[in-house]
Automatic annotation (TrEMBL):
This is Transposase, IS4 protein. It comes from the Bacteria.
Length: 36
């Protein structure tokens, strides 16, 4: 495993976490009848 792979994996993980948080937030907003 090289440095580039580590950086790539970290960026991918951050993007995934960001998207999951955004999805949860928008679902919560819809559940409470508010705009996301």
């Amino acid at each position: 495993i090289n440095k580039f792979e580590l950086i790539y994996q970290e960026v991918w993980g951050l993007l995934l976490a960001y998207n999951i948080i955004r999805r949860e937030a928008s679902q919560a907003a819809v559940a409470f009848g508010r705009a996301p």
